[in-house]
Amino acid sequence: MMAMTATKGKVLVAMSGGIDSSVTAMMLHNEGYEVIGITMKTWDYAGSGGSKKETGCCSLDSINDARILAVNHGFPHYILDIRAEFGDYIIDNFVEEYLAGRTPNPCVLCNTHIKWDALLKRADQLGCEFIATGHYAQVREENGRYVISKGLDESKDQSYVLWGLTQESLKRTIFPLGKYRKAQIKQMAIDSGYEELAKKSESYEICFVPDNDYRAFLKRKVTDLEERVNGGDFVLADGTVVGKHKGYPFYTIGQRKGLEVAFGEPMFVTEIKPETNTIVLGKKEELEKRQMKVRNYNLTKYASLPEGFSALTRIRYKDSGVMASLEEKDGHVHVLFHEHVSAIAPGQSAVFYEGNDLVGGGFIV
Question: Which of 286, 297, 324, 333 has the CB geometry, 3.0–4.6 Å to 282, for a possible disulfide?
Fold first, then answer.
Protein backbone atom coordinates (compact mmCIF):
# COMPACT_ATOMS: atom_id res chain seq x y z
CA MET A 1 0.00 0.00 0.00
CA MET A 2 1.43 3.37 -0.98
CA ALA A 3 2.10 5.93 1.73
CA MET A 4 0.16 9.16 1.62
CA THR A 5 1.82 12.54 1.80
CA ALA A 6 2.57 13.29 5.45
CA THR A 7 -0.17 15.61 6.67
CA LYS A 8 -1.10 14.40 10.14
CA GLY A 9 2.00 15.51 11.99
CA LYS A 10 5.30 14.06 13.09
CA VAL A 11 5.32 10.94 15.29
CA LEU A 12 8.15 9.11 17.04
CA VAL A 13 7.41 5.37 17.03
CA ALA A 14 9.00 3.01 19.57
CA MET A 15 10.15 0.06 17.46
CA SER A 16 11.29 -3.15 19.15
CA GLY A 17 11.65 -5.09 15.91
CA GLY A 18 8.61 -7.21 16.75
CA ILE A 19 5.36 -7.45 14.83
CA ASP A 20 3.28 -5.05 16.94
CA SER A 21 5.60 -2.05 16.85
CA SER A 22 6.51 -2.74 13.21
CA VAL A 23 2.87 -2.73 12.10
CA THR A 24 2.32 0.39 14.25
CA ALA A 25 5.03 2.21 12.30
CA MET A 26 3.73 1.00 8.91
CA MET A 27 0.16 1.87 9.79
CA LEU A 28 0.98 5.44 10.83
CA HIS A 29 3.25 5.90 7.80
CA ASN A 30 0.44 4.80 5.50
CA GLU A 31 -2.09 7.03 7.29
CA GLY A 32 -0.05 10.11 6.47
CA TYR A 33 2.05 10.74 9.56
CA GLU A 34 5.70 11.70 9.23
CA VAL A 35 7.22 8.72 11.06
CA ILE A 36 10.55 8.51 12.85
CA GLY A 37 11.42 5.12 14.30
CA ILE A 38 13.41 4.67 17.49
CA THR A 39 14.66 1.50 19.17
CA MET A 40 15.58 1.73 22.82
CA LYS A 41 18.45 -0.36 24.11
CA THR A 42 17.35 -0.89 27.70
CA TRP A 43 19.65 -3.53 29.10
CA ASP A 44 22.97 -5.25 28.52
CA TYR A 45 22.41 -8.94 27.84
CA ALA A 46 26.04 -9.85 28.50
CA GLY A 47 25.77 -8.47 32.02
CA SER A 48 22.56 -10.30 32.87
CA GLY A 49 24.18 -13.72 33.11
CA GLY A 50 21.33 -15.51 31.38
CA SER A 51 21.95 -18.91 29.85
CA LYS A 52 19.74 -18.54 26.77
CA LYS A 53 20.68 -17.13 23.40
CA GLU A 54 19.99 -13.41 23.15
CA THR A 55 16.39 -12.81 22.10
CA GLY A 56 13.71 -10.16 22.41
CA CYS A 57 13.46 -6.43 21.92
CA CYS A 58 17.06 -5.59 22.81
CA SER A 59 18.85 -8.15 20.63
CA LEU A 60 20.97 -7.09 17.66
CA ASP A 61 18.64 -9.02 15.34
CA SER A 62 15.60 -7.12 16.60
CA ILE A 63 17.34 -3.76 16.25
CA ASN A 64 18.32 -4.67 12.69
CA ASP A 65 14.76 -5.79 11.88
CA ALA A 66 13.43 -2.41 13.03
CA ARG A 67 16.03 -0.53 11.00
CA ILE A 68 15.42 -2.57 7.82
CA LEU A 69 11.66 -1.92 7.99
CA ALA A 70 12.30 1.82 8.41
CA VAL A 71 14.68 1.86 5.43
CA ASN A 72 12.17 -0.09 3.32
CA HIS A 73 9.47 2.48 4.05
CA GLY A 74 11.72 5.49 3.70
CA PHE A 75 11.60 6.94 7.18
CA PRO A 76 14.50 7.58 9.62
CA HIS A 77 15.43 5.18 12.42
CA TYR A 78 17.55 5.81 15.50
CA ILE A 79 18.88 3.70 18.37
CA LEU A 80 18.61 5.21 21.84
CA ASP A 81 20.90 3.73 24.50
CA ILE A 82 19.21 4.06 27.89
CA ARG A 83 20.91 1.09 29.59
CA ALA A 84 22.43 3.15 32.39
CA GLU A 85 19.17 4.88 33.27
CA PHE A 86 17.21 1.63 32.97
CA GLY A 87 19.65 -0.30 35.14
CA ASP A 88 19.90 2.33 37.85
CA TYR A 89 16.15 2.65 38.22
CA ILE A 90 14.39 -0.53 37.07
CA ILE A 91 16.88 -3.24 38.00
CA ASP A 92 17.84 -1.63 41.32
CA ASN A 93 14.15 -1.30 42.20
CA PHE A 94 13.54 -4.93 41.17
CA VAL A 95 16.23 -6.14 43.59
CA GLU A 96 15.19 -3.76 46.38
CA GLU A 97 11.54 -4.87 46.19
CA TYR A 98 12.40 -8.55 46.58
CA LEU A 99 14.74 -7.70 49.47
CA ALA A 100 11.81 -5.85 51.07
CA GLY A 101 9.65 -8.99 50.80
CA ARG A 102 7.53 -7.63 47.95
CA THR A 103 6.88 -8.84 44.38
CA PRO A 104 7.92 -6.07 41.95
CA ASN A 105 6.22 -4.92 38.74
CA PRO A 106 9.16 -3.80 36.54
CA CYS A 107 7.18 -3.37 33.29
CA VAL A 108 4.90 -0.74 34.87
CA LEU A 109 7.88 1.19 36.24
CA CYS A 110 9.70 0.95 32.92
CA ASN A 111 6.74 2.32 30.97
CA THR A 112 6.12 5.16 33.39
CA HIS A 113 9.60 6.30 34.36
CA ILE A 114 11.87 5.17 31.54
CA LYS A 115 10.26 4.51 28.15
CA TRP A 116 7.72 7.33 28.03
CA ASP A 117 10.11 9.86 29.53
CA ALA A 118 12.85 8.83 27.08
CA LEU A 119 10.44 8.89 24.12
CA LEU A 120 9.00 12.30 24.95
CA LYS A 121 12.44 13.81 25.53
CA ARG A 122 13.69 12.54 22.17
CA ALA A 123 10.38 13.51 20.49
CA ASP A 124 10.94 17.10 21.63
CA GLN A 125 14.49 17.04 20.29
CA LEU A 126 13.28 15.75 16.90
CA GLY A 127 10.28 18.08 16.66
CA CYS A 128 7.68 15.30 16.98
CA GLU A 129 4.21 16.19 18.20
CA PHE A 130 3.33 12.60 19.06
CA ILE A 131 4.80 9.32 20.23
CA ALA A 132 3.36 5.89 19.41
CA THR A 133 3.81 2.35 20.71
CA GLY A 134 2.52 -1.08 19.78
CA HIS A 135 0.50 -1.57 22.97
CA TYR A 136 -2.97 -3.05 22.66
CA ALA A 137 -4.83 -0.20 24.34
CA GLN A 138 -6.79 2.90 23.37
CA VAL A 139 -6.70 6.54 24.46
CA ARG A 140 -9.26 9.31 24.00
CA GLU A 141 -9.96 12.79 25.30
CA GLU A 142 -13.09 13.14 27.42
CA ASN A 143 -14.18 15.90 29.82
CA GLY A 144 -10.79 17.56 29.53
CA ARG A 145 -8.88 14.38 30.48
CA TYR A 146 -7.08 11.71 28.50
CA VAL A 147 -8.57 8.29 29.22
CA ILE A 148 -7.00 4.90 28.54
CA SER A 149 -9.36 2.06 27.68
CA LYS A 150 -8.83 -1.61 26.94
CA GLY A 151 -7.72 -2.82 23.54
CA LEU A 152 -10.42 -4.41 21.40
CA ASP A 153 -8.62 -7.77 21.64
CA GLU A 154 -9.08 -8.50 25.36
CA SER A 155 -6.73 -11.47 25.17
CA LYS A 156 -3.93 -9.05 24.21
CA ASP A 157 -5.08 -5.99 26.19
CA GLN A 158 -2.12 -4.19 27.83
CA SER A 159 -3.89 -1.35 29.62
CA TYR A 160 -2.91 -2.94 32.97
CA VAL A 161 0.75 -1.93 32.54
CA LEU A 162 -0.10 1.65 31.50
CA TRP A 163 -1.79 2.92 34.66
CA GLY A 164 1.20 5.08 35.60
CA LEU A 165 1.12 7.31 32.50
CA THR A 166 0.50 10.98 33.20
CA GLN A 167 -2.04 13.20 31.49
CA GLU A 168 0.81 15.08 29.80
CA SER A 169 2.18 11.80 28.40
CA LEU A 170 -1.22 10.56 27.23
CA LYS A 171 -1.95 13.86 25.48
CA ARG A 172 0.83 13.04 23.00
CA THR A 173 0.42 9.23 22.80
CA ILE A 174 -1.07 7.21 19.95
CA PHE A 175 -1.98 3.51 20.28
CA PRO A 176 -2.82 2.45 16.69
CA LEU A 177 -3.33 -1.25 17.53
CA GLY A 178 -6.05 -0.72 20.12
CA LYS A 179 -8.88 -1.05 17.61
CA TYR A 180 -7.59 -4.31 16.11
CA ARG A 181 -7.27 -7.95 17.02
CA LYS A 182 -3.90 -9.70 16.99
CA ALA A 183 -4.96 -11.88 14.05
CA GLN A 184 -5.63 -8.74 12.00
CA ILE A 185 -2.19 -7.33 12.86
CA LYS A 186 -0.52 -10.57 11.76
CA GLN A 187 -2.45 -10.44 8.48
CA MET A 188 -1.36 -6.82 7.92
CA ALA A 189 2.26 -7.87 8.33
CA ILE A 190 1.82 -10.74 5.85
CA ASP A 191 -0.01 -8.51 3.35
CA SER A 192 2.87 -5.99 3.58
CA GLY A 193 5.42 -8.69 2.73
CA TYR A 194 6.66 -9.30 6.29
CA GLU A 195 5.62 -12.91 6.79
CA GLU A 196 8.63 -13.54 9.04
CA LEU A 197 7.33 -10.91 11.47
CA ALA A 198 4.07 -12.83 11.80
CA LYS A 199 6.04 -15.98 12.67
CA LYS A 200 8.14 -14.36 15.41
CA SER A 201 7.54 -15.84 18.83
CA GLU A 202 6.53 -13.45 21.59
CA SER A 203 8.34 -13.30 24.91
CA TYR A 204 6.46 -12.74 28.15
CA GLU A 205 9.59 -12.83 30.29
CA ILE A 206 11.07 -9.85 32.09
CA CYS A 207 13.54 -8.48 29.55
CA PHE A 208 16.52 -8.41 31.91
CA VAL A 209 15.77 -11.91 33.25
CA PRO A 210 15.90 -13.74 29.91
CA ASP A 211 15.87 -17.25 31.37
CA ASN A 212 12.87 -16.28 33.56
CA ASP A 213 14.78 -17.34 36.70
CA TYR A 214 14.51 -14.30 38.95
CA ARG A 215 16.07 -16.18 41.88
CA ALA A 216 19.30 -16.79 39.96
CA PHE A 217 19.23 -13.16 38.82
CA LEU A 218 19.00 -11.94 42.43
CA LYS A 219 21.92 -14.16 43.44
CA ARG A 220 24.04 -12.71 40.64
CA LYS A 221 23.17 -9.13 41.59
CA VAL A 222 23.59 -9.57 45.35
CA THR A 223 26.62 -11.83 45.72
CA ASP A 224 26.23 -12.46 49.46
CA LEU A 225 22.44 -12.88 49.31
CA GLU A 226 22.38 -16.60 50.13
CA GLU A 227 24.64 -16.11 53.14
CA ARG A 228 22.34 -13.36 54.42
CA VAL A 229 18.98 -15.06 54.03
CA ASN A 230 19.43 -18.85 53.85
CA GLY A 231 17.99 -20.98 56.62
CA GLY A 232 15.14 -18.81 57.87
CA ASP A 233 12.03 -20.32 59.42
CA PHE A 234 8.80 -21.43 57.82
CA VAL A 235 6.12 -20.75 60.44
CA LEU A 236 2.38 -21.08 60.80
CA ALA A 237 0.17 -18.10 61.63
CA ASP A 238 0.48 -18.90 65.37
CA GLY A 239 4.31 -18.81 65.15
CA THR A 240 4.87 -22.59 65.18
CA VAL A 241 8.10 -23.37 63.30
CA VAL A 242 7.49 -26.05 60.66
CA GLY A 243 10.72 -26.02 58.65
CA LYS A 244 13.57 -24.07 57.11
CA HIS A 245 13.48 -22.10 53.85
CA LYS A 246 16.19 -20.97 51.41
CA GLY A 247 15.74 -17.23 51.90
CA TYR A 248 12.64 -15.04 51.94
CA PRO A 249 13.37 -13.18 48.63
CA PHE A 250 13.01 -16.47 46.76
CA TYR A 251 9.32 -16.89 47.60
CA THR A 252 6.13 -15.09 46.59
CA ILE A 253 2.68 -14.73 48.13
CA GLY A 254 0.44 -17.62 47.06
CA GLN A 255 3.33 -19.94 46.22
CA ARG A 256 2.62 -23.63 46.87
CA LYS A 257 5.23 -25.54 44.88
CA GLY A 258 8.89 -25.73 45.85
CA LEU A 259 8.35 -25.24 49.59
CA GLU A 260 10.01 -28.60 50.39
CA VAL A 261 7.93 -28.96 53.55
CA ALA A 262 5.63 -31.98 53.86
CA PHE A 263 2.08 -31.49 55.12
CA GLY A 264 -1.01 -33.64 54.93
CA GLU A 265 -2.69 -30.92 52.84
CA PRO A 266 -1.62 -28.15 50.44
CA MET A 267 0.06 -25.17 52.13
CA PHE A 268 0.78 -21.75 50.66
CA VAL A 269 2.97 -18.72 51.36
CA THR A 270 0.60 -16.27 53.08
CA GLU A 271 3.06 -13.66 54.38
CA ILE A 272 6.74 -12.73 53.99
CA LYS A 273 8.55 -11.07 56.92
CA PRO A 274 11.93 -9.78 55.71
CA GLU A 275 12.87 -8.24 59.05
CA THR A 276 13.02 -11.72 60.64
CA ASN A 277 13.69 -13.77 57.47
CA THR A 278 10.45 -15.59 58.23
CA ILE A 279 7.84 -16.98 55.84
CA VAL A 280 4.31 -17.68 57.07
CA LEU A 281 2.53 -20.69 55.59
CA GLY A 282 -1.19 -21.37 55.68
CA LYS A 283 -4.13 -23.08 54.07
CA LYS A 284 -5.68 -21.72 50.90
CA GLU A 285 -8.44 -19.91 52.79
CA GLU A 286 -5.81 -18.01 54.79
CA LEU A 287 -4.77 -16.32 51.52
CA GLU A 288 -8.21 -14.79 51.11
CA LYS A 289 -8.72 -11.14 52.06
CA ARG A 290 -11.28 -8.38 51.59
CA GLN A 291 -9.14 -5.25 52.07
CA MET A 292 -5.88 -3.71 50.90
CA LYS A 293 -4.18 -0.33 50.52
CA VAL A 294 -2.56 1.03 47.34
CA ARG A 295 0.39 3.47 47.34
CA ASN A 296 1.99 5.69 44.68
CA TYR A 297 -1.27 5.65 42.77
CA ASN A 298 -2.10 7.54 39.59
CA LEU A 299 -5.60 8.39 38.36
CA THR A 300 -6.31 8.78 34.66
CA LYS A 301 -10.06 8.97 34.04
CA TYR A 302 -10.79 11.25 37.01
CA ALA A 303 -8.71 13.89 38.78
CA SER A 304 -9.94 12.36 42.05
CA LEU A 305 -12.17 9.40 42.83
CA PRO A 306 -15.89 10.20 43.00
CA GLU A 307 -17.47 9.73 46.42
CA GLY A 308 -18.84 6.21 46.96
CA PHE A 309 -16.96 4.96 43.90
CA SER A 310 -16.69 1.27 43.00
CA ALA A 311 -14.53 -0.25 40.27
CA LEU A 312 -13.45 -3.62 38.94
CA THR A 313 -10.06 -4.12 40.58
CA ARG A 314 -7.35 -6.38 39.18
CA ILE A 315 -4.43 -7.41 41.39
CA ARG A 316 -2.30 -9.11 38.73
CA TYR A 317 -1.88 -8.92 34.96
CA LYS A 318 -4.11 -11.82 33.94
CA ASP A 319 -6.54 -11.39 36.83
CA SER A 320 -10.19 -11.13 35.76
CA GLY A 321 -10.85 -8.67 38.58
CA VAL A 322 -13.33 -8.23 41.43
CA MET A 323 -15.60 -5.26 42.17
CA ALA A 324 -14.39 -3.12 45.06
CA SER A 325 -15.23 0.13 46.83
CA LEU A 326 -12.42 2.69 46.55
CA GLU A 327 -11.60 5.65 48.78
CA GLU A 328 -8.69 8.09 48.71
CA LYS A 329 -7.40 8.60 52.23
CA ASP A 330 -4.04 9.35 53.88
CA GLY A 331 -2.17 9.32 50.57
CA HIS A 332 -3.44 5.86 49.65
CA VAL A 333 -6.38 4.28 47.88
CA HIS A 334 -8.22 2.11 50.40
CA VAL A 335 -9.80 -0.88 48.67
CA LEU A 336 -12.69 -2.91 50.05
CA PHE A 337 -13.47 -5.88 47.83
CA HIS A 338 -17.10 -6.95 47.50
CA GLU A 339 -15.99 -10.59 47.83
CA HIS A 340 -12.85 -12.36 48.99
CA VAL A 341 -9.79 -12.31 46.74
CA SER A 342 -6.81 -14.64 47.00
CA ALA A 343 -3.05 -14.02 47.15
CA ILE A 344 -2.82 -10.22 47.34
CA ALA A 345 0.91 -9.66 46.80
CA PRO A 346 2.52 -6.42 48.07
CA GLY A 347 4.50 -4.72 45.30
CA GLN A 348 2.20 -5.85 42.51
CA SER A 349 -0.07 -3.41 40.68
CA ALA A 350 -3.70 -2.92 41.59
CA VAL A 351 -5.52 -1.50 38.58
CA PHE A 352 -9.05 -0.07 38.60
CA TYR A 353 -11.56 -0.23 35.72
CA GLU A 354 -14.93 1.33 35.01
CA GLY A 355 -16.28 -0.76 32.15
CA ASN A 356 -13.49 -0.78 29.57
CA ASP A 357 -11.93 2.43 30.91
CA LEU A 358 -8.83 2.49 33.05
CA VAL A 359 -9.57 4.60 36.13
CA GLY A 360 -6.06 4.34 37.56
CA GLY A 361 -3.77 2.12 39.55
CA GLY A 362 -0.99 1.87 42.08
CA PHE A 363 1.23 -0.51 44.01
CA ILE A 364 -0.21 -2.81 46.65
CA VAL A 365 1.08 -2.07 50.16
Answer: 286
